[in-house]
Amino acid sequence: MSAVRERLRLADQQRAFAAAVLDPALPAPDGVVDPAGRTCPKRFGVYRNNVIAGLIEALQDSFPAVCRLLGEQYFRAMARLFVTAHPPRSPVLLEYGGGFPEFIAAFEPTATLPYLAEVAHIERAWLEAYHAAEAPSFDQAALRTLGTMVPERVGELRFTLHPSLRVVRCRYPALTIWRMNVADGVPGAVDLAAGGEDVLVVRPGADVEVRALPAGGARLLAALGNGRCLSEAVRIALPRCAPDELSMHLAGLLRSGAFTAAEAGTAAGAAGAHSAAHPRLHQVRRRGSRA
Amino acid sequence: MDRCHDSIPARAGVSLKPKHYATVLEHVPAVGFFEVHAENYMGAGGPPHRYLTAIRERYPLSLHGVGLSIGADRPLDRAHLARLRQLIDWYEPGLFSEHLAWSTHGAVFLDDLLPLPYTAATLRCVVRHIDQVQETLGRQMLLENPATYVAFADSAFEEGEFIAQIVRRTGCALLLDINNVHVACTNQRWDPERYLDAYPLAHVREIHLAGHSCIEDDAGRPLLIDSHDGPVCPPVWDLYARALEQLGGVPTLIEWDAKLPTWSQLEREAARSAAMLDAQAARNSGTAVSAATRFIGPPGETGPQGETGRRMSVAIG
Fold first, then answer.
1. Radius of gyration (C-alpha) of chain A in whole angstroms
2. How many CB pairs under 8 A join A and B?
3. Which of A109, A245, B137, B304 fits a 20 to 30 Å CA distance from B116?
4. Is residue A286 part of a domain?
5. Which of A39, A50, A80 to mutate: most B Cβ within 10 Å?
6. Quick one: A156 and A200 in the same domain?
């Protein structure tokens, strides 16, 4: 056989193998045999099972509260549909499952649990925050500087959001439900008509922190994240905001490590409460120098 | 840090799991080295990097890739190679290994180590990719022999000969997974002793030992599954002893990836491997081995006691 034809054959074999791994309705590919040269669907099924079961387990690890809400058997059946329809596109499996909350939102059989996809969004945000780039949050010195600034200058501040920060806006009390279904949470009655919850997820240090945002907090963060200065952001997000309400918002966000830096004005080198350098992504402290 | 920790010693190591991070940093147990799956540390930041950085300061580290898909008949994923290169720059592992397998097709990643037909075309493909890996990473890689469940009608090489050809053409070294030898030989009905005789042992730089499980194949015969979910079984220890006779001392990893054991269970497995390595070293140097052979820590001091969990001061960025 010529080299080119052999090469095509390897590509064809792998295409058929991959298709049959993902679709149990397909037979094991031609040329895949047992040691006696016979077809061997059961042996081939080991690969199919390794791939599918492995991906289902990855989802189960990433969405523990969704799994607890549905029960393991139901969750795994639903996850199986997702992994065969949306297999990973990257070998970095810790990123896998980004589309799972939307899949759940559109999943007809669980439509009677409308908060389920929102709980999944919180779990996904948690996972993203867990693996997000490191960045120093606003430190105490920067906070003190902020406290000495005249109020007009405070309004000009532009904040840099922490790279791990995620906001999940929920129409249902999904944060309450999530808390009841992770770790040693105890499920209890939840009034689904009680209204939505906006959730802040951020990992300023070693631990992911999840908390409810007060009304208007999600809009304020969105405006600040879009580069608006504080006074503009407040005008957009909290038009009827009283001064004490605004300082409560800001104090809460600063305490939760939502920001890494603040700069006054837009001109280069503007003075202000500039704290640590802007987050530098993908940087890890090197150990020692090469001897 | 002490740079002598950078090369992997001919001692027993274990695969590092998040479940054991805190124990390792708190007690700094006497383990020869740790090994991690590269892909588990490809997030931008977060606790995995914080812990691994702290553990790397105290132990030699081996990096084991499971997603490069060296056997796929498509170009290697350059972004993935770049991620590997970055991890190697960050952690300076003593060894880097990958598999004789494939796991990507089209844009899809199939989360398993899929088998290859041993043909001239596969050989050319694998050699081309290993050349590219070694060039991009600027170092020699180790290639691991697979655990397989099926054969290919068009295979033209025996596995040992196929691997020897790869070594000859690429200059790569080998990770000999002895559990995989046992699993593949049982499943393919090969003789494991003959397998080791044909295998290019002179190029082995690391050994893997692991547990497996057993089901039945289509003909009702035992089919071993490379599940890494239990202790190393007796025939694998026997093969290991036989390999050590020929190899002398080689860094040996206990792999345990599912149904994770307690730290002390894992330590017991590593201690058994360490005792066999010590006995082999004693035979090589012609001295008797003490009955109190033990699992010795890194040379010199064992390093500062690590802070654990949330109070860990090791930072990234």
1. 25
2. 200
3. B137
4. no
5. A50
6. yes
Pairing of strands A166-169, B204-210: unpaired
pLDDT digits (tens, 9 = 90+) for A144-181: 777 777 777 888 999 999 999 999 999 999 999 999 99
Cβ contact (<8 Å) for A3 and B120? yes
Q: ipTM of the assembly?
A: 0.88
Residue B126 has pLDDT above 80, yes or no: yes
Looking at the structure, do residues A62 and A194 belong to the same domain, yes or no? no
B111 touching A (Cβ < 8 Å) = yes
Hey, what amino acid is at B116? Answer: L
pLDDT tens digit sequence for B147-163 = 999 999 999 999 999 99
- Statement to judge: residues A95 and A170 lie in one domain: no
My answer on whether A94 and A147 are in the same domain is no
Domain assignment present for residue B317? The answer is no
On the 0-12 / 13-18 / 19+ scale of CB atoms within 10 A, A166 is: buried
Is residue A122 situated within a structural domain? no
Number of compact structural domains in chain B = 1
Tokens in use for B156? 């033209």
Instruction: Give me the domain span that covers residue B149.
Output: 3-311
Angle formed at CA B134 by CA B128 and CA B140, multiple of 5 degrees:
125
Look at residue B293 and tell me whether its pLDDT is greater than 80: no
DSSP secondary structure of A173-230: -HHHHHHHTSTT-------GGG---EEEEE-SSSS-EEEEEPTTHHHHHHHHHTT--H
Q: What is the CATH classification number for the domain harbouring B286?
A: 3.20.20.150
Q: What percent of chain A has pLDDT over 70?
A: 88
Query: Which pLDDT belongs to residue A243?
Result: 78
Say yes or no to pLDDT of B310 above 60: no
In a domain, B65, yes or no: yes
The answer to whether A40 touches A102, Cβ cutoff 8 Å, is: no
Predicted confidence band of residue A266 (pLDDT cuts 50, 70, 90): low
Residue ranges in A86-190 assigned as alpha helix (H): 100-105, 116-131, 140-148, 151-155, 174-180
Q: Do residue A163 and residue A272 come from a single domain?
A: yes
Q: Would the CB atoms of B152 and A31 count as touching at under 8 Å?
A: yes
**What total of structural domains would you count in chain A?**
2
Residues 240-279 of B with CB under 8 A from A: none
Whether residue B255 is contained in a domain is answered as yes
Which pLDDT tens digit goes with each residue over A97-137?
A: 999 999 999 999 999 999 999 999 999 999 999 999 999 88
**Cβ contact A10–B121 (<8 Å):** yes
Q: Which of B1, B111, B218 sits opposite A55 (nearest CB)?
A: B111
Domain that holds residue A181: 134-278
Residues B213 and B230: beta-carbon distance below 8 Å = yes
Q: How would residue B307 be classed by pLDDT, with cut points 50, 70 and 90?
A: very low
Torsions phi, psi for A243 (to 5 deg) = -55, -40
Q: What does chain B come to in residues?
A: 317
Pairing of strands B61-64, B204-210: unpaired
CB spacing of B67 vs A11 below 8 angstroms? no
